[in-house]
Amino acid sequence: MSVDKDIVKRVARLARIAVSDEEAEALKGELNTILGFVEQLNEVDVTGVEPMTSVVAVEMKKRTDVVTERDQAAKIVANAPVREEHFFVVPKVVE
């Protein structure tokens, strides 16, 4: 896919970024380079490769799930516009 100046201007408008015509020309080249790299990555065969969150095997840090403050329901719903006992009341959105 090739990006032209009109696409750059449209993307900038969607991102709420003011871009001049000169900047759009410069960004056109940068975006085309990025898209070329993405196309190159799409050619890599990743069948059988498990998704990772890191490039090195690291076990996630875990903490024990301990209740530290009890009986806070009244404080939690104190600022709710509409509540019923210790529950938030919200409008029905599905019939």
Question: Which SSEs are present, and which pair or pack?
Answer:
Layout: H1 5-14, H2 21-42, H3 73-76, E1 83-84, E2 87-88
Antiparallel strand pairs: 1-2
Helix pairs in contact: 1-2
- What is the succession of H and E elements? HHHEE
Distance between the termini: 44 Å
Q: At the third CATH level, what is the topology name of the domain at 5-41? A: Histone, subunit A
Strand order, sheet with most strands: 1-2
CATH first level of the domain at 5-41: which class? Mainly Alpha
Largest sheet: 2 strands, antiparallel
The geometry reads as flat
Which regions are unreliable across 5 or more consecutive residues at pLDDT < 50?
Answer: none
Structural class: mainly alpha
How many strands appear in the DSSP assignment? 2
What's the tally of helices? 3
Share of helix among residues?
25-40%
Radius of gyration over C-alpha positions, nearest whole angstrom: 25 Å
| Percentage of residues in strands | under 5%
- CATH architectural category of the domain at 5-41: Orthogonal Bundle
Would you tell me the overall average pLDDT? 89
